[in-house]
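Design job #97: recover the sequence.
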């Protein structure tokens, strides 16, 4: 990935990721679901998707109204360790894409650390960051929500606040951003990955 260029963009496997959690505390909260979908050759590969529900060690009834995941719901749930192992196998050597990547990756890495399973070292891209750098040249610290980017890029908010649903929404936004990138050619993909990677370490 050292000399990545837009010219070989199509050959890269991107994994667009989202997590649903009991809250925003990296140490006190837990993941409830990990959802992801792959992109390659400018196409969302629905057949190359991932979704796993996790047995709840922590329960926060206040967040159920957001994600709809109940402690004793009907979803098939696995242990946190099993979910993480499945996700790492699915991820392989892909470049990660997410909206506010640092949150999802930190939640995953904190969980991996609890189980002495290392940490994710994959290159990472953040749709909020790309939008600011490529589309707006906005130098402010404003954080664009996923809903705002859906409105800006005319992406339907289908299955919002489910992990796989939000991953698919983010994937559509990412493709629209890369089309804009191709037209503007303002930054090469290596710069975006390298800069965003260090921002999210």
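Job complete. Output follows.
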């Amino acid at each position: 990935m050292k000399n990545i260029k837009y010219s070989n963009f199509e050959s890269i496997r991107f994994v667009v990721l989202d997590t649903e959690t009991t809250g925003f505390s990296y140490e006190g909260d837990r993941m409830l679901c990990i959802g992801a979908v792959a992109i390659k050759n400018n196409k969302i590969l629905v057949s190359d998707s991932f979704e796993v529900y996790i047995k709840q060690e922590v329960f926060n009834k206040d967040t159920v109204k957001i994600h709809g995941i109940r402690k004793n719901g009907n979803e098939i749930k696995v242990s946190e360790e099993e979910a993480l192992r499945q996700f790492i196998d699915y991820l392989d050597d892909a470049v990660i894409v997410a909206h506010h990547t640092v949150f999802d990756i930190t939640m995953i890495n904190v969980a991996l650390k609890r189980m002495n399973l290392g940490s994710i070292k994959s290159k990472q891209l953040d749709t909020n960051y790309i939008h600011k750098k490529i589309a707006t040249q906005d130098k402010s610290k404003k954080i664009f929500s996923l809903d705002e980017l859906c409105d800006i890029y005319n992406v339907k908010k289908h299955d919002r606040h489910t992990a796989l649903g939000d991953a698919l929404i983010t994937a559509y936004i990412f493709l629209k951003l890369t089309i804009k990138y191709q037209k503007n050619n303002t930054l090469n993909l290596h710069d975006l990955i390298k800069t965003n990677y260090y921002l999210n370490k």
